[in-house]
Amino acid sequence: MDTEKHKVDPIASSSDERTGAATVALVGAGPGNPGLLTVRAVELLGRADLVLYDRLVPVRLLDFAPENAKRVCVDSLHGTHPERWPEIYRIAIDAARQGLRVVRLKGGDPFVFGRGGEEAEALRQAGIAYEIVPGVTAALGAGAFAGIPLTHRRHVSAVAFVTGHEKPDKTDSFLDWPGLARFPGTLVVYMGMARLSHIVEQLIAHGKAADTPAAAVQWATTGRQRTVTASLHDLPEAVRSAELKAPSLVIIGSVVELRDELAWFESRPLFGQRILVTRPRHQAGSMVARLEELGAVVSVLPTVEIRAPHDWSPVDCALSQLERYRWIVFTSVNGVEALLTRLRHVGRDLRALGSTQLAVIGPSTADALRRFHLEPDLMPPVFDSESLAATLLPHVAGHRVLLARADRGRDVLRERLGKVAEVEQIAVYSQVDALDPNAEAMEALRQGEIDFITATSSNIARSLLSRLDETSARRIRSGAIRLVSISPITSAAIVEMGFPVAAEARIYTAEGAIEALLTLRSQGP
Ligand code: SAH
User: Distance between CA 362 and CA 346 in Å, rounded?
Assistant: First the structure.
């Protein structure tokens, strides 16, 4: 080991000593559900330059890393197992020596069947400072999300984590089957699917009761979770007929019975439903979080992008003389953000709004204003342009009104308010169609792995529906994929393009669309 140490690049190691900063973090990603990342994992990801992740780590977790961070799936590295491993160390070590902040993101916990120990040893030998961040190991995730307490005072007071698939060069004798069969507690078997029959035979042959309750949990903690229960003896057959595959865990013990009462996750209203959210990524967050809370498997496919307007000069001109307007009308969150951010750019601040009245189209836009410490003066009872125009009309007669909006959209407000007021319409942002044909979500759609699509504006709907492949289009027309629309305007755009609308929000907000989806779902498939 000493000889290894002499090879260490002296500059890199002394700089590590100076700063004392860990340069490689071995981070547990948990079993798949993003909510199960630790706060420390999110912090480290948030400032990573390079993320080396395992295939089992859902790519969504990489969204916590900065956009320009490099992401490398270690399974894509050259060399086949087990020769591949040194390549991972080499990349991590090289990057750390260049001063990059490396996160080595591993499924579950890095030290539970994760080879984290070997990777940490390699880092130590190379003289690289490192940090280990534990993660929720799959057994804990599966126990919690399948409703199986791994220990329970009425059942057992011990639990053992076992690997069902060891290094190929290890013999079976490494696992003490008689000892495991006698173990007075719950057994959790990782990587056991390929050899499940063998494992069950061994346990029963060494005295474990054949009728011991058992479960297999696939993709635990995610919307794709599936659980099969049977007696220990019958489990391999039950797993086969349910076609459960890796990654799955096997849980053996009387605690499995408790699941009948405690399976909270799988009884959520949208459990297992695959939903495509078509909003721009930076605006999809809260909708995705809510759908996931309801148990759905959510993919995000942005179909429009928000950019700066083609020309700021009309905006700057309006901002420099805001006093002229009695009302400013906002019809989107983007409009609020664009206009108020630009205000600083022209050297002014919120005081420039003085006594100008602010109108918004709906609650999300109102919340966007509140984030700038501004309270809207007017919001219509129904969240569309028609209702906004009707509500505003009595207030604007004879006044000057500024409409801050996208560079495309309907002209309802200008037309209706223009009859009584002096209306100026400015494009504070530009909305362009953008659909990445290589996006993972696009592939899910092509493969028929989507049950519902939410359409949260007519532009979004048009952008998506005009770019669909023929098979997906047919699936929507036949009702295999169902479209949920945020409002009658959006529904009209969908119908105009020749597609059916399965449900429409009663209240024209993202939450309203989710409500519509829930109602549709409760009416059966
Ligand atoms: N370090 C990881 C385990 C890696 S071994 C941890 O602490 O969880 C890989 C095995 O973990 C898989 O074969 C499977 O048995 C189990 N596993 C990982 N994620 C899982 C999940 N979401 N659901 C069920 N089993 C999972």
Answer: 28
Strand partners, 330: 360, 404
In which domain, by residue range, is 423 found? 307-433
Q: How many Å from the N-terminal Cα to the C-terminal Cα in the chain?
A: 63
Is the separation of the CB atoms in 104 and 92 below 8 Å?
yes
**C-beta of residue 100 within 8 angstroms of C-beta of residue 49:** yes
Which tokens belong to 196?
A: 């499940």
Residues 131 and 86 reside in one and the same domain: yes
Of 56, 167, 250, 266, best ligand 1 pocket probe by most atoms within 8 Å of the beta carbon: 56
247 Cβ below 6 A of ligand 1: yes
Same domain, 286 and 314: no
Nearest residue CA, atom 9 of ligand 1? 191
221 lines ligand 1 (CB under 6 A): yes
The answer to whether position 414 is within a domain reads yes
Q: Are residues 152 and 217 in the same domain?
A: yes
Say if ligand 1 is within 6 A of residue 219 CB. Answer: yes
Name the residue type at position 259.
R
**243 and 176 within one domain:** yes
79 and 193 share one domain: no
Least-confidence region, from 16-20, 192-196, 214-218, 457-461? 16-20
Q: Is 32 in the pocket of ligand 1 (CB under 6 A)?
A: yes
244 and 164 fall within a common domain: yes
User: Is the preceding peptide bond at 110 cis, omega within 30 degrees of 0?
Assistant: no
524 SS3 class: coil
pLDDT value for 171: 55
Neighbours of 207 (CB within 10 A): 10
Let me know if residue 9 belongs to a domain: no
Cα–Cα distance list, 442 to 130, 209, 292, 453 (Å): 38, 48, 19, 12
Same structural domain, 130 and 155 = no
Residues 123 and 151 in one domain: no
Residue 15: CB atoms within 10 A of its CB come to: 15
Question: Which ligand 1 atom is at minimum distance from the Cα of 136?
Answer: 7
Both tokens assigned to 118: 């070997």
In angstroms, the CA 446 to CA 455 distance is 18
Q: How many domains are contained in the chain?
A: 4
Stretch (H or E) spanning 52? strand 50-53
User: Is 354 in contact with 325 (CB distance < 8 Å)?
Assistant: no
Query: Is residue 5 in some structural domain?
Result: no
CA 58 / ligand 1 centre spacing (Å): 12
Question: Residue 148 is part of a domain; what is its CATH number?
Answer: 3.30.950.10
Cα distance between residue 380 and residue 413, in whole Å: 13
Domain-located, residue 11? no
CATH of the domain at 390: 3.40.50.10090
pLDDT at 14 over 70: no
* Across 406-413, average pLDDT: 91
pLDDT surpasses 80 at 242:
yes
